[in-house]
# Entry
Amino acid sequence: MSAPTLSLPAPAKLNLFLHITGRRADGYHTLQTLFQFLDHGDTLHFNARPDGQITLQPELPGVPAEANLIVRAARLLQQASGTSQGADIQLDKRLPMGGGIGGGSSDAATTLVGLNHLWRTGLSLEQLAELGLSLGADVPVFVRGHAAWAEGVGEQLTPVTLDEPWYLVVVPPCQVSTAEIFSDQRLTRDSPAITLAAFREHGGRNDCLPVVAARYPEIRNTLILLNKYCEAKMTGTGSCLFGAFPNEREADKVRARLPATLQTFVAQGCNVSPLHAQLNKAAY
Ligand SMILES: C[C@@](CO)(OP(=O)(O)O)[C@H](O)COP(=O)(O)OP(=O)(O)OC[C@H]1O[C@@H](n2ccc(N)nc2=O)[C@H](O)[C@@H]1O
Ligand SMILES: Nc1ncnc2c1ncn2[C@@H]1O[C@H](COP(=O)(O)OP(=O)(O)O)[C@@H](O)[C@H]1O
# Structure
């Protein structure tokens, strides 16, 4: 009999705003942002295996298994816990890559949380979030699983409760490299720090948007198009754009008016990550 499978979601996130407040000596940027999850994402299936091997199916185009954040997360947890167990992992990829909706980071977080459960390695969420930070600045928020106000390089998290609107997400036909945007001379790095209360009252910007729009005509044009129907915003360092709607029907109406050639999806914002919602239901 084959080992039981644990299947868990790896949801997308949105950055509802993104201010770059400075640059550290190591080159990393300090920022302020608000993370909210979407009830839309990848799914990972895990089977424990006793021989310590980690396998991943299928391989993602352009990402060899050893570079995949899922395999890297699994190996990191093996090292940190000293377990002798391994895993066969299957990935149902739905999220666009390099879209600023955090698919790779979310896959890594679901792997850390899922294998910690399956292997009974007993690390706390805090320890898993710290491990995750070495894989990427966005991994900790997915490990912790609550919508959050973030500072530092995105790792100083304060859980927040936000409205949970429906979002129309548009995926422009290009990928954006985060490192490339952060190294652009034109990026402004001096936004004054604000408070959550100030954001709630006055809103915020995405400081990466002018640079992304200047570098990618496809994103600039998609932004102009989406702005005809709603207040269009960009998540992270792009490429995905989004607008908020009070209900699914309103979001679907705008989606139907966009060209069929554009990749789009509609999903609800969630303050509790679908990963944690599922684990809580199963009394994890
Ligand atoms: C800015 C955000 C907002 O969510 O952008 P998105 O990637 O989601 O679009 C993220 O925090 C990004 O996190 P993540 O995508 O995990 O970035 P990492 O792999 O840690 O970093 C990629 C590269 O971007 C630069 N980088 C990243 C984060 C940061 N606060 N300052 C930086 O200067 C560094 O050059 C780094 O080598
Ligand atoms: N499991 C994974 N899913 C997606 N991308 C991955 C994964 N593992 C490694 N990567 C690499 O990370 C890059 C950024 O991934 P992703 O998280 O999708 O984008 P973003 O950080 O813009 O939200 C990809 O272009 C890819 O090279």
User: Anything to note?
Assistant: The chain is about 30% helix and 30% strand. The mean pLDDT is 96. The pocket of SUD (ligand 1) is lined by residues 15, 27-29, 31, 33, 100, 102, 105, 136-138, 153-154, 178-179, 182, 236-237 (CB under 6 Å). The first strand starts at residue 6 and ends at 23.
